[in-house]
Structures are given as structure tokens and as C-alpha cells.
Design brief:
Length: 272
């Protein structure tokens, strides 16, 4: 397998240029090899943090999702240790609406996470197809997400990168029973904090996260945010689910920040 270096789309090995972006594709990585105790079977997806693979525990034969951090992220040698520290903190939050972390480690200087393997669609994909959701669906997602965030915040853990692609929607509950309403699982607790610390350590000032969902104070001073930034991001998602659009849009982070500070979102009742 290979993936587009621009958009992250996954392609067969025979593809050299991504048909969507006209950019070259790259090798999908360690498929067919073993990372620690896990046999890597195939690439599942590519994100800003790194790549996610379908893997299997070499002894238990249990299928899992293995997330491997991009080596380009590791410019500071302390990043791997910070990563493990945050992973352990996130793993301590056991909640039915947070993806369960099963293991973590570092192999040849490259951190990895092992999580429960789930079959579902993320909210970003659902919104791309349907554009907006019903009030009932939106409330279901809101209540479950708030329940999960409350558990994390009670332990002092701030997500920092709440956005639709980090909200996984399942059609089955933890017991495997089919559900008529979306069952929420939140992804990637703690990872954004490590990447932010990495940027500070290397003297960078890049905004990490997705600006459209970030509170103004997170755009201005990411180091000082607390749990309220997660609530702001969830509120933006709720508006998007109901309106089919973001409450604030801009061609740059500066313009987005200005509009978030000075404008009011268009009332939902006025949207067709």
C-alpha cells in the first residue's frame, strides 16, 4: 500500500501519482513487519500525528489499531518520553466513550500507541456526505462527548484538538449490540499536547490543531488553555452539525481569530 504525501489518501502499490492531488505517493511503511509485540498487517489511515495500522498481537492474536508517530515529528529527543507520559495519563481514563488505549512504547526511537480496533465512521466523513445532522443525532453526540470530556477533565487531561475527525461514530455499543443512535468514541487524548511541546522546544510558533475549532485563547496562547478550550471546540462542532457550516470562517488564522472575537454566528433559525 501507498499514501498520497499531500492529502493522505491510500492507494494500491501500483499507483505512483495521486489522481486527486497530482502529488507523488509514498510507501505505506512497516506493513508485514513486527513492531514490538505486534505484527503490522495493513495501513488504515494517515493523519497529522502519523499513520494508523491494523495489527495483531503476536501471542494473543488479538487485532488492534496501532498508531505510529511520524519520525519527522521527533526533532526533539525528549518528545518520545513526553509522548509516553501523556499516553499513560490518557490510558488512566477508563470511559465507555473514549477509545481504550491498550499499550504504548518506543521502538528504535519511534513512539507507538496500541488501541482497541473499532469499526465506524468519524464525524468528519459523515458531515462530508450528509452536511448536517438532525437535532436528535446532534444531541446524542453532544451528551456522549460531554460525558467523555467530563471524565478526562476530572483527571486534569485536556484534549486540545477536538474536531469531527476525532469523534468516531459506531453503530454498536461496547457489548456488540446494534444501536439505532450513533455511539460515540473520542480519539487522540493527549497527543496534541506533546506536539505543541515539541514545537515550543524547537522554537516554532506553528498553530497545532485545527484552527476552525480552536478557541481564541488557544490561537493566541496555546500553553495557557484549560478544559474550556475543549468545550468551545465541541460547541463549534454542534453548530456545524446543525447548520451544515462552521460558525466562523476565514482564509487565515488571523482572520478566523478576528471573526471569532468580533462576529456573532448566524442564528440557526435563519439557516435554510
Amino acid at each position: 500500500m501507498a499514501f498520497c504525501t499531500a492529502c493522505g489518501a491510500i492507494h494500491d502499490d501500483v499507483v505512483v501519482i495521486c489522481p486527486e492531488t497530482s502529488q507523488p505517493v509514498a510507501d505505506a511503511g512497516p506493513c508485514g513487519s513486527r513492531i514490538d509485540r505486534y505484527d503490522v498487517e495493513r495501513l488504515l489511515g494517515i493523519g497529522g500525528f502519523g499513520a494508523v495500522y491494523l495489527a495483531r498481537h503476536s501471542m494473543l492474536r488479538q487485532q488492534v489499531a496501532l498508531k505510529l508517530m511520524r519520525k519527522q515529528r521527533l526533532t526533539d529527543p525528549r518528545t518520545a518520553e513526553r509522548f509516553l507520559r501523556e499516553a499513560r495519563a490518557a490510558a488512566a481514563v477508563s470511559h465507555p466513550h473514549i477509545v481504550q488505549m491498550l499499550d504504548c512504547g518506543i521502538v528504535e526511537g519511534q513512539p507507538f500507541l496500541v488501541m482497541e480496533l473499532l469499526a465506524g465512521k468519524d464525524l468528519a466523513d459523515v458531515l462530508a456526505i450528509r452536511r448536517r445532522l438532525s437535532l436528535g443525532e446532534t444531541l446524542d453526540i453532544a451528551v456522549q462527548s460531554l460525558d467523555a470530556l467530563g471524565a478526562a477533565h476530572a483527571r486534569g487531561i485536556v484534549h486540545r484538538d477536538m474536531k469531527p475527525s476525532n469523534v468516531l461514530l459506531l453503530d454498536r455499543d461496547p457489548d456488540g449490540a446494534a444501536t439505532t443512535r450513533p455511539y460515540v468514541k473520542l480519539l487522540d487524548f493527549g497527543i496534541s499536547k506533546v506536539l505543541h511541546e515539541e514545537t515550543l522546544a524547537t522554537g516554532g510558533n506553528t498553530v497545532l490543531g485545527t484552527p476552525a475549532y480552536m478557541a481564541p485563547e488557544q490561537l493566541l496562547s496555546p500553553s495557557t488553555i484549560d478544559h474550556r478550550a475543549d468545550l468551545y471546540a465541541l460547541a463549534v462542532m454542534l453548530y456545524e452539525m446543525l447548520a451544515g457550516r462552521l460558525p466562523f470562517e476565514g482564509d487565515s488564522v488571523g482572520e478566523l481569530l478576528r471573526r471569532a472575537l468580533t462576529d456573532r454566528p448566524q442564528p440557526l433559525r435563519t439557516l435554510a
